[in-house]
Design brief:
Pfam families: DUF547 (PF04784). By secondary structure, this protein is mainly alpha-helical. The chain has nine helices and seven strands. The N and C termini lie far apart (51 Å). The relative contact order is 0.13.
Amino acid sequence: MITARSLWLALLAAGLLLMAVPDAPAAPRPELWPRWQAHDPASNQRVNHAAWGGFLKRYLVTDHPSGIHRLRYREVSEEDRQGLASYLEHLQQVAVSTLNREEQKAYWINLYNALTVKVVLDHYPVDSIRDIDISPGFFSDGPWDAQLLLIEGERLSLNDIEHRILRPVFVDNRVHYALNCASLGCPNLQPRPFSAANLERLLEEGARAYVNHPRGVRLEGERLVVSSIYEWFQVDFGGSVQGVLQHLIGFADPPLGERLRDHSGGFADDYDWALNE
């Protein structure tokens, strides 16, 4: 028999559990999935990303006054929804392990970004991608752990791509500027697909654009405020406040770079999860 006291205790325990849920998803550490290290350095294969390029050309706004690229989710036609789904099906048929490293890196970035857009479209309208709670687990937050892909016989999630493949296999912190999580606080979704040929240029451009935008780095008097990306993934940026600062200085334009060099102390961080609509 359930007494009033036992019911009250159960409700109290549930409330404490809810309070323990973090306000923002904790960033997983890179954890290598060795199966995805396989590659062919001599391969000349090229993956066709034209469908993704066409989608971006039609729906991505790159001249918004905010400096943040926006996607016109509401205007995506049914035909283009189907085209995006077909593109993702095409990517899942690719023998990724037979590609060279540069082609693989571009492949995983495009796959991540295109799948993120499809997930938002499948649940649109939403205020934030964090409202799409399709990951397994009672306290799931967002879609990142849902295994939505089947590649070379393996089920993969967005988190698998980012934290078990891209980060540990390629060890390049600039991938954080390439992956878009459909939020205003995130680095810009690039207006063209990544490829082996443009990979280096787009990674550099993405890093510079983000570091030199207020949502990436800003100084409020003597107070340094950076994107939460640098807090969540500090292990990828030197593992310390000083490591983050050195990284930022490397991409900052003057006079921001000069002010960062003169900065002493730590930083505050924030992030805007509103949809990049």
